[in-house]
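[Protein data]
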Amino acid sequence: MGERFTILIIDNMAYNITRVVYFFYYEGKIILTNGFVKNTQKTPPEEIRLAKERRADYHRKEGMNMKTLNEML
């Protein structure tokens, strides 16, 4: 599991650029983690931290779901 995220520009208004952070998951799933309005050149560290936390949470929950599914089979 790498540390790679993609940032998608949703809307480019006059001064604010709305971004959505996402990552790819198995079977072609795209998981959106968070969105924000970017006012500076660099992505805010808080947004990167939030995306990492949400990705880890998603992987943890998805792993629990797979374990439950395997136990049912």
